[in-house]
Write a structure and sequence with these properties.
The complex is a heterodimer of chains A (156) and B (735). Chain A has 156 residues and is mainly beta. In chain A, the strands form 2 sheets. In chain A, strands 5-4-3-7-8 form a 5-stranded mixed beta sheet, with helices on one face. In chain A, strands 1-6-2-9 form a 4-stranded mixed beta sheet. In chain A, 42% of the residues are buried. Chain A is built from 3 helices and 9 strands; from the N terminus they run βααβββαβββββ. Chain B is an alpha/beta fold and 735 residues long. Chain B folds into 5 domains: 158 residues, no CATH class; 121 residues, no CATH class; 152 residues, Flavodoxin domain (Rossmann fold, 3-Layer(aba) Sandwich); 107 residues, Elongation Factor Tu (Ef-tu), domain 3, CATH 2.40.30; 138 residues, Rossmann fold (3-Layer(aba) Sandwich). Chain B has 22 helices and 24 strands. The chains are: A mainly beta (156), B alpha/beta (735). At the A-B interface, α3 and β8 of A face α5 of B.
Chain lengths: 156, 735
């Protein structure tokens, strides 16, 4: 289990009282059989105004390829500190990725959006592969991605 | 030392390097296929025009990429569905699927990571490092073997496995060094060990906020030719803060979608440019021909791996175990060995065993471990030394001469030097000779005069051993077994006798070709493949040592023929001369590739005396292509020992021999073969000037006489037998 608390605390978007209450959230991502190598996936959150708040997970270990996750890269400048300690392996076609994080309650039902950028070697870059609002009502609902992600859902 | 750096990485990484090479060779085809298949853009086409064409065809275009091969791919999104295609730049329309080729993808993953991700990448990088190490050590070994860089492409001789290994290596090594170093660079880049991060300017904080400028109105896109394009990303459709992202061969930057102004630009760093070049070199992406060349080089790797392993295995099998080796301080006889492969060690083991049997305490060691202070009880030194390449020290003798030169005074015990070599090479026993000369110059007392053993001849070695026994006062019988294949029984078909009247009983013995197994037929083993000039090793009854006779026939003739002269007291020649039709003899084949005629059309000058005419007659009989052959043949008397005298006119009529010149040593106008050569100097000079190759077969004295005569004859032309030898145009087979 990875804690997002420390990372989100760096951001000014969230206030300290909000941080006190957090709950474990499981993100389940299943990829389509797109017929390519392992996909790099960047999970991150933006606030109601669309401004980047923080990263939740980076699937893919080689920073030289991060520029292909172009929206995430544009928002962070590729700053490795944004994903320090929350980086894992890239995800193969047809495979699933399940991550459980402690997310602040304040992120839910407050206009925050979960984004996923995706990229695959020698295939298209897919910034904004998924953009799904974080709501308690939306928990457990599977959302399809644009190119590589078959379904994405978050459960509380 | 270098050999160890070549052998062990080679054996350890054999599988990995072979896998790398084969997958790499297979991959090298794809860039060429892509180059052929990709619709190329017209010269001078600008990115703006191309982008406008693609946008007209696919309204939701998000990105256009250009591969180094020139292939252009577009990615779009229409009605919520992602699309991609290879684009014809002339129309902007898709012409082929943009999906990655699954075979290529599979091979790429095998090639770079064995499907094991980072662990596999590191393993494959280790394979590339092994390849680089093998190439560098191999280059050093080849340079040493051929006697320097100038001789890089010199004709090779020796066993087939070693020859194939070097033949391929000296062509493929450049490609392999390039591929392996580039592979290491790319791995380092993948693991972020190099500062070659692609240039990326900061995303502009301020944009105009306008949208919808026509592509044709953007200056930088109009100014950038498609040839330089890497990728163009379109701004997200509903995001006014987004920009065009342009990547070219030179760098990358952002362009305002409303004004067309370049908002930020970063040039590629030097490191990144180097990485780009190396990527091209390694993958052949954008350099298809180079890729194919590298792929071909890689194909040599499995062959080199197999032949190299064979060379190693053959050497290992022939390396003897020395049992009961005494410590340096306790030995009476110090036996030092300078060997490149292992054959000289074999002789050392035989000598060691014989001396030990005679009650001697013997210490055997490589010459490189020469340490005079340790030999406190030494009574004599014996040095067995081979020669490497152009007179260089063999591997196990490195540093011996330096250490000898550094001595204040020579060891008290006397020294005997025996050289091993192949008289077909110009620097015959040159290293052993140098050792002998250096010892003499140092004032080291001589136990026995310097002697040599040609082509591992067991006879010469036994003769030298008997002399050593005389000096030491003990009977010494050196029965050296060169590792040889199982002997085959040969049955005499016919014989023709000569020379009884001139006190030189000689016979042409023709044996039936033995029955071959299917395996021998397929592999060319045993008597399945041989030609005139190869050697027949005959095993006489009552001796474990074989005697070598030059073959006067090839396998195509359908019989095995040798010419034998009865030697006084000769065990083997006595038995052979006593054979009657139907009798048998045991023998095996020893290839002698140094004494084969070339395949070219250049004339041949064959020089032989006595039984030495045997292989030369075999070459003439096999000259179906009617290459001009001039034979100089020395005999005692034409009525008695004119070997093949009956066939010569027939061969002449058939065009197999151009001219026969004979020298007769008995009678009123006695002359030797070197004399007739001298009187034919003009013609001999003309032939050699035309590229003729000289092959000499016979006794050592005759060969020396011929070399002297040719030295004189060729003096006006500036050529010498030694120069011709270095070019492989002067070969000797002497006994």
């Amino acid at each position: 289990m990875k804690s997002l608390l420390a990372i989100l605390a760096l951001s000014t978007a969230l206030t300290a009282p909000g941080l006190a209450m957090a709950r474990p959230v499981t993100l389940t991502t299943t990829l389509t059989n797109y017929g390519g190598d392992g996909a790099y996936l960047a999970f991150y959150v933006t606030d109601p105004s669309g401004t980047y708040v923080g990263s939740l997970w980076m699937a893919g270990g080689k920073s030289k390829y991060y520029e292909h996750l172009s929206d995430w890269y544009r928002a962070t400048g590729g700053d490795p500190a944004q994903i320090n300690g929350i980086t894992g392996a890239s995800v193969g076609a047809g495979r699933s990725l399940e991550i459980t994080l402690d997310l602040a309650d304040a992120l839910f039902d407050a206009g925050y959006t979960l984004h996923v950028d995706a990229a695959v070697e020698d295939m298209r870059d897919s910034p904004n592969e998924v953009a799904v609002p974080l709501t308690t009502a939306g928990a457990g609902t599977a959302v399809p991605g644009r190119r590589y992600i078959a379904t994405l859902s978050y459960d509380m | 030392m270098i050999r160890a750096f070549h052998r062990w990485p080679g054996l350890l990484a054999l599988g990995l390097v072979t896998l790398l090479a084969l997958s790499g060779a297979a991959l090298s085809v794809f860039p060429a296929l892509e180059r052929i298949a990709a619709p190329q853009s017209e010269t001078g086409l600008s990115v703006a025009t191309l982008a406008a064409r693609v946008q007209a065809a696919y309204l939701g275009v998000e990105q256009i990429r250009r591969a180094p091969s020139g292939q252009i791919t577009a990615y779009w999104f229409d009605a919520g569905t992602p699309g991609a295609a290879v684009i014809d730049p002339a129309t902007g329309q898709g012409v082929a699927s943009a999906d990655p080729n699954q075979t290529e993808r599979w091979l790429t993953n095998l090639h770079r990571s064995l499907f094991l991700d980072d662990t596999g990448r590191i393993a494959m990088a280790a394979g590339a490092a092994a390849m680089l190490l093998l190439s560098i050590s191999g280059v050093a070994l080849v340079a040493r073997r051929v006697g320097g860089w100038r001789n890089w492409f010199v004709r090779l001789r020796g066993p087939i496995a070693g020859r194939i290994h070097v033949e391929i290596a000296r062509i493929a090594v450049l490609g392999l060094v390039l591929s392996a170093s580039a592979a290491l660079w790319m791995t380092a880049s993948t693991f972020d060990l190099l500062p070659d991060i692609a240039a990326s300017p900061a995303f502009p904080s301020e944009v105009s906020g306008e949208t919808g400028r026509a592509l044709s109105g953007i200056a930088v896109l109009k100014a950038t030719p498609v040839m330089e394009l890497r990728a163009l990303n379109f701004p997200a459709r509903d995001d006014a803060t987004d920009v065009f992202t342009l990547k070219t061969r030179r760098g990358m930057g952002f362009v305002d979608q409303g004004t067309g102004v370049t908002l930020a630009w970063a040039e590629l760093s030097g490191w990144a440019q180097v990485s780009e070049v190396i990527y091209t070199l390694h993958t052949g992406q954008g350099a298809a021909v180079l890729g194919l060349i590298l792929g071909l080089s890689a194909l040599g790797v499995p062959v080199m791996g197999a032949s190299g392993a064979l060379v190693w295995w053959a050497g290992r099998r022939s390396r003897p175990r020395i049992r009961g080796n005494r410590a340096a301080g306790a030995a009476q006889t110090i036996l030092l060995v300078g060997s490149e492969g292992c054959s000289t060690w074999g002789f050392a083991a035989t000598l060691h065993a014989a001396l030990a049997k005679a009650g001697q305490a013997v210490h055997v060691a490589p010459m490189s471990s020469f340490a005079p202070k340790q030999y406190s009880r030494a009574e004599r030194f014996i040095i067995l030394a081979a020669t490497y390449g152009d007179g260089a020290a063999p591997a196990s003798a490195k540093g011996f001469l330096d250490r000898l030169a550094a001595l204040d005074h020579p060891p008290a015990a006397p020294i005997a030097v025996l050289g091993f070599g192949d008289s077909g090479f110009p620097a015959y026993c040159a290293y052993a000779q140098a050792v002998s000369d250096a010892a003499q110059a140092k004032g080291w007392r001589e136990l026995m005069p310097f002697d040599t053993v040609d082509r591992q001849s067991p006879q010469s070695f036994a003769r030298w051993g008997r002399n050593l026994g005389l000096v030491m006062g003990l009977p010494l019988e050196l029965a050296h077994h060169v590792m040889h294949p199982k002997a085959t029984t040969l049955t005499l078909m016919s014989r023709r006798d000569y020379g009884a009247e001139v006190q030189a009983p000689t016979a042409i013995l023709r044996f039936a070709l033995p029955r071959l197994s299917l395996w021998q037929r397929l592999t060319g083993a045993g008597f399945a493949r041989f030609q005139a000039g190869d050697l027949l090793a005959v095993m006489p009854e009552g001796s474990p040592v074989s005697r070598l006779y030059s073959l006067a026939s090839s396998c195509r003739d359908g019989f095995v023929e040798i010419v034998v002269r009865k030697q006084a007291g000769g065990l083997c020649s006595g038995q052979l001369m006593a054979l009657a039709k139907g009798d048998t003899m045991n023998a095996f084949l020893r290839p002698n590739p140094g004494f084969h005629p070339d395949r070219g059309r250049a004339p041949l000058i064959l020089i032989g005396a006595g039984t030495g005419v045997g292989p030369l007659a075999g070459i003439i009989r096999g000259n179906a292509r009617k290459c001009p052959i001039h034979l100089f043949f020395g005999m005692r008397h034409p009525d008695s020992d004119f070997l093949y005298g009956r066939e010569m006119p027939v061969w002449k009529a058939e065009g197999r021999i151009t001219r026969l010149v004979t020298a007769v040593s008995r009678g009123p106008k006695a002359s030797y073969v070197q004399d007739v050569l001298r009187s034919d100097a003009v013609e001999v000079t003309r032939l050699i000037g035309n590229g003729a190759r000289v092959m000499v077969c016979g006794g050592r004295d005759m060969a020396a006489g011929v070399a002297d005569a040719l030295t004189d004859i060729l003096a006006p032309t500036g050529l010498t037998p030694a120069l011709l030898k270095a070019e492989g145009r002067y070969v000797e087979d002497t006994y």
